[in-house]
């Protein structure tokens, strides 16, 4: 028997009952998975609609990192766990300093593995966390499916008071832009397949946004050449093999030539890449990269101009 789905006023769309899944408990296993998958397919379009706001957040992050500041994520529950994951993966992926992206999770490390009662409701704890770690010029990105998590909002207000730029990612377009927020990224993911379970579509949207946000920030900072990861050093045999393959992809040159260039560059993939593509010596290539802020294309342009 089908369960009636009545319209009940709730604060956030994620808390509403989804009319497309009211019979999900009567479905076969394939039916359940199909219903969840159909809801998941709505998320990328919802994220696409907020790309202009996400671009502003990326620009704030790039400005902060270029100025010697840092990027901070603030979240609770699923939001905080996803933020912690994104921050942790940037160091091995892009060879950036470990303190460039810092995740602050309501309830601390214990809450990453199990729920900590009332941690997300403590606005003062969020503010205190930020007061001890954020500097003027940093960028602080909060994540809260409801758009109203006190821990996150308390952190953003304090960050704004300190002089940091701030952003908020939510799945509640109905919520007004909170005080202390420079850019609001409100994704219309709608009601979850299971009412209120924001680890589903809202969480998927946050994962897509975080991955795009941090990757775009790294690209803008010159951590890639084309779509290749070139900001790494060959510190062991495995990484040396990977860097040589990247050099081959980027230059079209033979493995032996790439291996020799990498050795000459002291294991620095970017220096070896600029050396091979420009024909300049390793010292000139390193100097051009330094002057270009680590951007391979800018370094190549400067060397070509110099040669011309």
From TrEMBL:
PROSITE patterns: GCKR, SIS. It is an enzyme of class 4 (lyase). Its EC number is 4.2.1.126. SUPFAM superfamilies: SIS domain, UBA-like. Pathway: Amino-sugar metabolism; N-acetylmuramate degradation. GO terms for molecular function: carbohydrate derivative binding; carbon-oxygen lyase activity; ether hydrolase activity. The active site is at residues 89, 120. It comes from the Bacteria. Keywords: Carbohydrate metabolism, Lyase. Residues 61-223 form the SIS domain. It catalyses: N-acetyl-D-muramate 6-phosphate + H2O = N-acetyl-D-glucosamine 6-phosphate + (R)-lactate. GO terms for biological process: amino sugar catabolic process; N-acetylmuramic acid catabolic process; peptidoglycan turnover. Specifically catalyzes the cleavage of the D-lactyl ether substituent of MurNAc 6-phosphate, producing GlcNAc 6-phosphate and D-lactate. HAMAP family: MurQ (MF_00068). Homodimer. A lyase-type mechanism (elimination/hydration) is suggested for the cleavage of the lactyl ether bond of MurNAc 6-phosphate, with the formation of an alpha,beta-unsaturated aldehyde intermediate with (E)-stereochemistry, followed by the syn addition of water to give product. Belongs to the GCKR-like family. MurNAc-6-P etherase subfamily. This is N-acetylmuramic acid 6-phosphate etherase. It comes from Amycolatopsis echigonensis.
């Amino acid at each position: 028997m089908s369960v009636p789905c009545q319209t009940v006023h709730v604060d956030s769309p994620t808390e509403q009952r989804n009319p497309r899944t009211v019979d999900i408990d009567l479905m076969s296993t394939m039916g359940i998975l199909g219903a969840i998958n159909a809801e998941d397919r709505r998320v990328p379009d919802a994220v696409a609609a907020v790309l202009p706001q996400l671009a502003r957040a990326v620009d704030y992050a790039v400005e902060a990192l270029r100025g010697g500041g840092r990027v901070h994520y603030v979240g609770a529950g699923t939001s905080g766990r996803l933020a912690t994951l994104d921050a942790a993966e940037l160091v091995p992926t892009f060879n950036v300093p470990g303190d460039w992206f810092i995740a602050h999770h309501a309830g601390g490390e214990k809450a990453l593995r199990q729920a900590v009662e009332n941690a997300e409701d403590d606005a003062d704890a969020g503010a205190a966390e930020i007061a001890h770690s954020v500097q003027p010029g940093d960028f602080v990105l909060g994540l809260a499916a409801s758009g109203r998590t006190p821990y996150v909002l308390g952190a953003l207000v304090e960050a704004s008071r300190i002089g940091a730029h701030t952003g908020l990612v939510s799945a509640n377009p109905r919520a007004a832009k909170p005080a202390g927020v420079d850019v609001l990224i409100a994704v219309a993911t709608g009601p979850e397949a299971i009412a209120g379970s924001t680890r589903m579509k809202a969480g998927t949207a946050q994962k897509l946004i975080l991955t795009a946000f941090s990757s775009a920030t790294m690209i803008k900072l010159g951590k890639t050449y084309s779509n290749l990861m070139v900001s790494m050093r060959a510190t062991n045999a495995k990484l040396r093999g990977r860097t040589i393959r990247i050099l081959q992809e980027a230059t079209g040159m033979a493995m032996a030539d790439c291996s020799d260039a990498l050795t000459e560059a002291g294991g620095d993939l970017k220096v070896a890449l600029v050396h091979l593509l420009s024909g300049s010596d390793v010292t000139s290539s390193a100097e051009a990269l330094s002057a270009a802020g680590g951007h391979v294309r800018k370094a190549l342009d400067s060397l070509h101009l110099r040669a011309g």
